Amino acid sequence: MSGRDTHTCNSLSRRDFIKRSLLTASALSLVPLASTTSCSQPHAPTGGMVNDNSGTGHLIRQGFKGKPAKVVDLPVAIVGGGVSGLSAAWHLNKHKLSDFLVFDLAAKEGGNAVSGSNTISSFPWAAHYLPIVNNSNTGLIRFLEQQNIITGFDEAGLPIYNDYYLCFDPEERLFINGHWQDGLVPSFGVPEQEKEQIAAFFKLVEDYKHKTGSDGKPVFEIPISQSSQDTEFRDLDKQSFHDFLLAKTWDSPYLLWYLNYCCKDDYGSTLQDTSAYAGLHYFCARRAKAANAESSAVLTWPEGNAFLVNSLSKELKSKIRTNQLITSVNLVNDKVEIVAYHALTQECIAYRCEQVILATPQYINRYLLPPELHDSSALQAFEYSPWMVANITVTGLTQYKGEPLSWDNVLYHSKSLGYVNACHQHLNRYEDSYVLTYYLPLTDLPSKQARHAIMEKPYESWVQEILADLRPAHPNIERMVTNIDVRLWGHGMIKPKPGFIFGKEKEQAAEPLAGKIYKAHTDLAGISIFEEAFAQGIGAANAILKLHAETAGA
Amino acid sequence: MRFVFLFSVFVVATCGLIYELVASTAASYLLGDSVTQFSTVIGVYLFAMGVGSYLSKYFKSDLLKTFIIVELLVGVFGGLSSTMLFIGFNFISSFQFFLYLVVFIIGTLVGLEIPLMLRILKDRFSFDDLVAKIFSFDYVGALLASLLFPLVLVPFLGLLKTSYLFGMFNAAIAYFMVDYLRAAKKVKVMLKSSSVAVVLLLCGCFAASESILSWSESLAYQEKIIISKSSKYQRIIVTRSNDDIRLYLNGNLQFSSRDEYRYHESLVYPALFKNPKARNVLVLGGGDGLAVRELLKWKGIEHITLVDLDHDMIELFKQNPLLTDLNSNSLNNPKLSIINQDAFIWLKQNSGKFDLAIVDFPDPSNYSVGKLYTTAFYKLLYDALGEQGSAVVQSTSPFFASKSFWCINNTIQSTGFKTTPYHSYVPSFGEWGYVLCEKHPSPMTDHPVNTRFFNRITWNSMTDFPEDMRSDTQEKNKLNNQVLVSLFEHEWSRYTHLQ
């Protein structure tokens, strides 16, 4: 009896003991938390979702057609104020054809190249750099020269880029195997065999860079339309980049990670979802030579490509109509009538135009154009990747060992593309706060499902996801973040899926309509980069200038 | 009562492991090579515990009283262990011996605890139950300590506060154990008041831990610290030993008053001898006012513009009597205008033209400072000078970092300047380098000046570079390719690693 009693008593006291010691332990761990200043406790950052105009944009999907209160004559209309539309406008204006208006749905023109700013810095909301330009791209080089982005040419005729716009050193780093290494090609802790495969890939790139097709044109050129038409190389578009690599027996996980990262970075799509042509184009089409920079150099600004947008639009301010949704484009008699709906005043105006440039993506055009003018089934081939972009303000960023904060900071084993330091091009020596622009293309689900999924995700979940993604490389990140703003891009950029770039659907969609409606958008090039947008805009503007020259001549 | 005793085993075990971890971590901080430090400290500690266990057999009576005294000793030694190590490091030449001695004392005392407790409790439990309980609580305590230490204690409290806190726990155990002691009242009162004294001592240390830490840091400077100040941008420390005043920024020596005249005369006079008619002078960096002091001695200089980012630093050198004595009150001179702005940004916005610019920035040890040594910066400098203008640039040591020095020279040359690289010996720095930059080369003139080091004849030797200060590097430092930072880091690391 007494024995059992003791036993019960002991086991009770043991449980009691453990309970008490746990309490003591937790008290111990709480005391220091409470005694250190309250600001060291994790606090929720300020910020929220940034409006992406998708609300107004969705009106046209719902079949909304404005009822115009008046009709106005307008020689030329440009629908869409992204880089394609603004390039067209800039080119028209330069050639003294200035009777036009540019319509844009957003409160500020720029499309994917818009920016924001806070007390620390300006920052991009999407496109944020331009690689130095191939010397064959004379049109773009002239534009850059005019904007003092190219300041002159050396004796050999090579462009001298503006020191302040070339990306400063240190440019890129990668967090891999617990360490920040220099550059993005994995090397820290990478086995020799895999390094050999990586080297073999870059040797192939070098070969392709200087290869020309049977028509004497480069195999890979920017814009893509200037590339060789040789079917031997165009056939690279028929297979996925992934299959292309496996056929070469390149299966190194580090190499595949890197190339998958590059596809996501440039196209928002995975290795499997990107054609081999597009995947190689990223590496093999850049042959720029400059007097004062390496061929791989890039131009960048705190506000990203909004800098280029401002260069394009600064002389056009009176011609840009923002907050205006075009709800329809129709042929009326021998003119093109577009209806513009003002999102703020709800006023509707019909414009009767000689010519119109549709600098809008094809997923919009299918709602704008009447069925008799075009075959909208071809537009099904256009697939766009959704993106999430966040601008994160941090104070006193701590990090693990290795390279210091760079312009582009990438995390191996992350779904995101890492972040870009928007303050990188600042000239001042001391900086303790930064704005980091964090990029996440959604590639896990098919684009349409992913689009729905991101629209439903609350702000707090995005914040938690971002912090969890950065934490392995930046311990205590939550204590350093003061603000996070999140912006969603439902149709971030065109996906160059296998078969798309040289497919019939794209070719068909690019055709002008009735000799009056011209199209300019990167989705018609197949890859979403500044150079393509610029070329698209110049191409459409030239077509109209030619018409006007003919009319004047007649 | 049994609970109290078992609980004390638990606390004592936690404390014991904490001291072991504190000593290992402190040794790693101070001596580096954490594998070796952890391994040897843990080895010595465990061995000492064995010694303590063995010694326990010599305590025949008054076991509880012995236990209480041991607790008080552990509280004092363990609680003050990290303090002793941090301070001892600066004073004791054979620090490793001291480290192992401290570890050995604490280990021995901790080794006494469990055997004593076993014997105290031996009549209250059956032997198998006693051994099971004591050792399980011992090991649970150890687990708790090993988890708390890296996750909570080091990040939130730091080593000093951690050891003070656990020292208080040991003393608290001693205090409560007195109640169970059968002894004369006088003895009990004495033990209790000793416990309270230990707790108060450690409490005091806990409260003063910030000053203890900065004091122990200050010992790392060989001289007496007379000013220690954190500005928005840097940690400013001024030390003094006898007549030698030294300025350190972020731990890097900026000048020693014994030989700074050599540096500042070398920086200022060659440019003035080449450009004697300079009237309007720009000084970038140099918030200590020492370069300005030399400039003000030159007749003909009408106006000096000083651009230095750190307002606190300027104020210090404007107001502190010791420092204004050193710079001859130059920063309060009416010929001087002071601008608190980032030099690069100021220069980019500047439209004025200067006859002479003195560029005195910290060495290019990181990408942020490296920007001030780029072609882009020197182009701005070129534009800020009049047609007959010239400049001089502090260019690190051509002996310790010859590639860096010549890289700076190349960079300046590439922006259109004609350069004259030169060097001088400054004992507290070593052989130091400068680059004189002119738009149009001009002859070296001679002037009567009141200098201790520089004169027209010394100049001849300053422009001669022996083989060990030459380099044929062709590198130029640009914003988009800061080669200088990696050159500098590489070259200086050979010397800093030796120390």
CATH topology of the domain at 54-115 and 303-381 and 497-553 in chain A: FAD/NAD(P)-binding domain
CATH class of the domain at 54-115 and 303-381 and 497-553 in chain A: Alpha Beta
- Separate helix tally of chain B: 18
CATH fold call of the largest domain in chain B: Rossmann fold
Mean pLDDT of chain B: 91
Number of strands of chain A: 20
CATH architecture identity of the domain at 54-115 and 303-381 and 497-553 in chain A: 3-Layer(bba) Sandwich
Helix fraction of chain A, binned, reads 25-40%
The portion of residues forming beta strands of chain B comes to 15-25%
CATH architectural designation of the largest domain in chain B: 3-Layer(aba) Sandwich
The largest sheet of chain A, given as strand count, sense and whether it forms a barrel, is: 7 strands, mixed
Strand order of the largest sheet of chain B: 7-6-5-8-9-11-10
Mean pLDDT of chain A: 90
Q: What proportion of the residues of chain A form beta strands (DSSP E)? A: 15-25%
Q: Which class best fits the helix and strand makeup of chain B?
A: alpha/beta
What series of H and E elements makes up the topology of chain B?
HHHHHHHHEEEEHEHEHHEHEHHEHEEHH
DSSP strand tally of chain B: 11
Structure notes:
The complex is a heterodimer of chains A (554) and B (499). Chain A has 554 residues and is α/β, with parallel strands linked by helices. Chain A has a domain at 54-115 and 303-381 and 497-553: FAD/NAD(P)-binding domain. Chain A is 34% helix and 21% strand. Chain A is built from 16 helices and 20 strands. In chain A, strands 1, 2, 11, 12, 13, 14 and 20 form a 7-stranded mixed sheet that branches. In chain A, strands 9-8-16-17-18-15-19 form a 7-stranded mixed sheet. Chain A is globular. Mean pLDDT of chain A is 90; it is low at 1-41. Chain B is an alpha/beta fold and 499 residues long. Chain B folds into 2 domains: 2-213, Growth Hormone, Chain: A (Up-down Bundle); 259-496, Vaccinia Virus protein VP39 (Rossmann fold). Chain B contains 18 helices and 11 strands. Chain B has helices at 2-31, 34-55, 63-79, 81-91, 95-120, 127-177, 185-207, 209-218, 260-274, 290-296, 311-319, 321-326, 343-349, 367-370, 375-383, 402-414, 456-462, 483-496; strands at residues 224-230, 235-241, 244-249, 252-256, 280-285, 303-307, 336-339, 354-360, 385-394, 418-426, 430-438. Chain B has a 7-stranded mixed sheet with strand order 7-6-5-8-9-11-10, with helices on both faces. In chain B, helix 4 runs parallel beside helix 8 (209-218) and helix 9 crosses helix 10. The chains are: A alpha/beta (554), B alpha/beta (499). The A-B interface holds A 10, 13, 16-18, 20-21, 25, 28-29, 32-33, 36, 40, 163-164, 166-171, 292-294, 297, 404, 427-431 and B 2-3, 6-7, 10, 129, 137, 140, 144, 148, 152-153, 156-157, 161, 232-233, 309, 342-345, 348, 366-372, 374-376, 379, 478-482, 485.
